[in-house]
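Exercise 7. Given the encoded structure of a 233-residue chain, write a plausible sequence.
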């Protein structure tokens, strides 16, 4: 999953035009003394610039008990909300799902925004469950693979992964998250509490197929880095 420079999308952008949006360097602002999660998101509310996508993010957050703003922050860093985004390593769609991960998540069409966002939300929820609600480790696992995070016993010493975690959190005000801050806090027309999915992988459960997918991903990334260091030769 490749970290890209991003900037807010134009508001009320037609869904079909999102793929043609060209990102500019992100503008950052500092926030201090943010007392609560709620006040943070009143100030730093996130939008994809498309009502249809925002509705999908809200539905995914409600289904997997995740803040829609957290999901949007991941999508901003991953793809700048482009439904047809692809990375040199093969990651696809808004949430930049690798082929093996998409298959594991049951995503048949990674470029379908609903399938992609739902799959990415489920995968992020699984990482949160795996790492006991530690959002920084979950984001690192989303970027570099959970076997890598487990192997290093924390955020891996990769500049890309470390920058990725900081950029996602930076779009949320840079606050230190707690479990109640990660949970879904949007409208619930059915008046039912959001619940984490029962199909999430339990903590410390080893999934061979998922591990192999991440190993292939890291091998492709290493090959890409070696080509870059050798001038593309």
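Solution.
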């Amino acid at each position: 999953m490749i970290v890209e420079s991003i900037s807010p999308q134009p508001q009320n952008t037609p869904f079909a035009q999102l793929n043609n949006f060209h990102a500019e360097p992100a503008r950052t602002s500092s926030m201090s003394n943010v007392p609560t999660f709620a006040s943070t998101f009143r100030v730093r509310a996130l939008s994809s610039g498309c009502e249809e996508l925002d509705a999908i993010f809200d539905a995914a957050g409600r289904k997997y008990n995740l803040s829609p703003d957290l999901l949007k922050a991941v999508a901003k860093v991953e793809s700048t909300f482009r439904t047809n985004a692809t990375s040199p390593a093969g990651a696809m769609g808004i949430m930049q799902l690798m082929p093996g991960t998409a298959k594991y998540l049951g995503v048949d069409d990674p470029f379908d925004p609903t399938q992609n966002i739902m799959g990415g939300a489920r995968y992020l929820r699984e990482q949160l469950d795996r790492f006991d609600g530690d959002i920084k480790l979950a984001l690192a696992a989303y970027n570099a693979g959970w076997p890598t995070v487990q192997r290093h016993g924390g955020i891996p010493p990769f500049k890309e992964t470390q920058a990725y975690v900081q950029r996602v959190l930076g779009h949320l005000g840079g606050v230190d998250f707690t479990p109640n801050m990660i949970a879904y806090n949007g409208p619930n027309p059915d008046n039912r509490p959001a619940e984490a999915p029962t199909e999430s992988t339990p903590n410390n459960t080893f999934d061979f197929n998922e591990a192999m997918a991440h190993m292939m991903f890291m091998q492709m990334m290493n090959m890409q880095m070696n080509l870059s260091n050798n001038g593309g030769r």
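Remark. DSSP finds ten helices and no strands in the chain. Students should compare their own answers with the one above.
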